[in-house]
Amino acid sequence: MSCCSGRCTLIAICFLQLVGTVERQVFDFLGYMWAPIIGNFFQIICVILGLFGTYQYRPRYIVVYCTWGVLWVAWNIFIICVYLELGSLTVETPALTLGAPQSISWWREHGIGCQVSNATATSTNPTVSGCLLDFTYVEMIHAAIQIVLAIIGFIYGIYVVYMFTEEDDSFDFIGGFDSYSAYQAPQKTSHMQLQPMYVTSSTC
Q: Which of 25, 64, 106, 177 meets the CB 3.0–4.6 Å disulfide criterion with 31?
């Protein structure tokens, strides 16, 4: 396949997802966001499977990647809803922190231009001001990027699986013409050749 094919595009998408997820994982570790950490861990594994399956022509791995992509989109939509505080959801919901103390987005206090006041070692709600971009928007942007990449990866993943399956079917079909000759036992050739016999008649 050429580099402009769906296979190479899917490899590029998987690479972007891997870079984005690793970057996100680092900052979630710094903020002790345990639920996103677990989700990012599974995302990294499934993206690696998708990358390997695409490179090594393994459609089953790509199917696993696409299946997880649907769950990954749903999880990131949930994160956006949390930071928008839709319904009863709040930023401090246990679904993100798993009940861990001092578990909050790292961007809340370390965003660009953020100034923290009234912060102590045991404080879980310090006063933050002057941020160029609120941490909720930073987290939602991260989630939105992951959603877009996952949707594109899902579409190209299905397309690549279809291409691999079609190529396998066409290969079997072409090889079917030679199936008889491939399994036919070779004929034994005899090294003995018939030689003409000359009979001489004797006169009495």
A: 106
Q: How far apart are CA 52 and CA 59, in angstroms?
A: 10
Q: Residue 58 to residues 18, 48, 50, 159: CA-CA distances in angstroms? A: 19, 12, 9, 13
Q: In terms of Cα–Cα distance, which of 153, 183, 180, 135 is closest to 66?
A: 153
Q: What pTM value is reported for the model?
A: 0.75
Beta bridge partners, 117, equal 127
The number of angstroms, rounded, from the C-alpha of 117 to the middle of its chain's C-alpha atoms is 41
Cβ burial, residue 155 (10 Å; 0-12/13-18/19+): middle
Q: Where are the alpha helices (DSSP H) in the chain?
A: 6-30, 34-55, 59-84, 94-97, 107-110, 135-176, 179-183
d(CA 155, CA 163): 13
Along the 204 residues of the chain, how does pLDDT read in single tens digits? 445 478 899 999 999 999 999 999 999 998 888 899 999 999 999 999 999 999 988 999 999 999 999 999 999 999 999 999 888 888 877 778 777 777 788 888 888 878 877 655 555 566 777 788 888 899 999 999 999 999 999 999 999 999 888 876 665 544 544 444 444 545 555 455 555 555 555 554
C-alpha separations of 9 from 13, 49, 152, 168 in Å:
6, 16, 10, 21
Length, in residues, of the chain: 204
